[in-house]
Amino acid sequence: MKKVLFTAALFSACTFVMAQEAPSTPSTPSTTSDYKPAAGANNLELNFTPLGNSPISITNIRYRRFLTETTALRLGVGVSIMSSSVEEVLPSNLTPGTFITGQKAKTSTFGWNIKPGYEKHFKGTNRLSPYIGGELDLASQMSKSVSHTIAANDVITETIVRNAGKNGFFRFGVNALAGFDCYLTKHLYLGAEMGFGLSTVLYSKVKTSSSPAPASPVRDVDQGNTFNLGPNFNSAIRLGFIF
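Structure (tokenized):
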């Protein structure tokens, strides 16, 4: 239902904007440059989801540089960092009823995503700029968790697990794109984009280490890889401005 409302809202907004245009005549020449970017213009955009929990969000920052009025280079960059820490309370085996504190269970992830690409824009209308293009999709992520256990002699063992649950990977993909920019005012637009592409995801091995080292170390676990081919769609409205 949200997707239907999203599509209807975007279509209604663009239809309203188009209705404000007066057709060009010899006495009222076209003023395309008043809305659309000229050669050398720069562009930044973010995601706009009016029906979501976070109406405005930045999953990545997209920058465009217009080489001409109809061609542009684009670069999407995203970085994600997450960490948490919880104090552990370990029951003593040597002194029943007492607990050992001072240790913390920790989890963290770090990831990045880079999407360089190219766009070819078409005439459209005074405020509508449809385009096609392509982009590369490069991404990587790593994760780490730290936990502690206590032995019968109250010796505390720290265990570090990296990239468990496919939370470590490297992705390479290529996407063909089609979309449009709908200019609401001078150099401010809403847009949508869809694409079709392929990607390969190589998952990192799960690596486990402990201190003190156990008598039988845990072997690394290979998580394999996946290959994806098919359509993809940005479910958010693209909100951007030219400067």
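Residues 2-19 form the longest helix (18 residues). The chain has a mean pLDDT of 86.
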